[in-house]
Amino acid sequence: MRIRLITFIALLTCCSLFNMHVLLAGNPLKVYISVDMEGIAGVVAADQVRAGGLDYQLARRWTTQEANAAILGALDAGATEIIVNDSHGGMRNLIASEIHPAARLITGSPKPLSMMEGIDSSFDAVIFIGYHTWAGSFDGVLDHTYSSASVYSVRVNGVEMGEAQVNALIAGYFGVPVVMVAGDENFCKQARESFGEHLVTAAVKQAIGRTAANSLTPEVAQDLIREKVRESLHDPSTVSPMIPAASSTFDVDFLYSSQAQSAELIPGVERTGPRSVSFTRSDFIEAFQLFRAVLLVARD
Fold first, then answer.
1. CA dihedral of 291, 294, 296, 298, whole degrees rounded to 10
2. For burial by CB atoms within 10 Å, which of 91, 101, 126, 271 has the most?
3. Nearest residue to 33 (alpha-carbon basis) of 78, 2, 1, 64
């Protein structure tokens, strides 16, 4: 009886200390996670990231597991609300029944903010999982920028950008910083150069070429992601968001002149070269949504 009483008192003490820690922790921690596929450990081929392709079902399970690792890392850090956005292709890749129940899942397309759907100023931090280098990168696994079938290059206010950089500007529009990214080693290098050395990265593979890599096993990659997410959320308020300029000019180079010819049919889009277009908007979200429309039209 005495042992049970001591155990009960000890449990009460632990609970009290935990509650005190929660009270002292201050505001709730709200985390946004955007999940792509090309940067997932073990993924090296286009058919792995295309519905119906060879090993797609296996690759989407690895993707779901890396998303869960990020969720667990966020929970370890004290996250009280977590949103996960399926951000690859048709955006129905994550297996909903296997996503950790502590998170909510945004799935399907089209979505107004695409890979950043659901982001707003209430979030404290953004995390990118499974991301990749921009089109034309040296030794980046499955490098591309939004569309490998149409886009050769994207520049915002004269600066070359990939999906991570444009998405970071969307987050920055709402005042939210990107604190951690996961993908191949060269993607992590690009991200640090864009976001600053404060960025926490998880390099889950090293590119040997566009369709080959020296990869961590999925389980080891997931452990690394959990650890790095937890580390990145120690104090996200110390990280500065990537704020877009007051006026944003997108310059898009396509693979073929016919794609630029289609894109220039959109009012406000100027043909600047045989396969290039340009447009400017004073609001970055408006500029981004026009960029998405340009890509859709150029696809025809």
1. -140
2. 126
3. 64
Catalytic residue, candidates 21, 100, 132, 144: 144
Determine phi and psi for 34, rounding to 5 degrees: -105, 130
- Which tens digit of pLDDT belongs to each residue from 5-60? 444 444 444 443 334 343 344 579 999 999 999 999 999 999 999 999 999 999 99
Of the options 3.40.50.1820, 3.30.1360.130, 3.40.350.10, 2.40.170.20, the CATH number for the domain spanning 248-298: 3.30.1360.130
User: Quick one: fold of 27-146+162-238?
Assistant: Rossmann fold (3.40.50)
Candidates 278, 211, 210; CA nearest to 249 is 278
User: Is 144 one of the catalytic residues?
Assistant: yes
Contact 167, 115 (CB under 8 A): yes
Question: What is the Cα–Cα distance from 28 to 233, expressed in whole angstroms?
Answer: 12
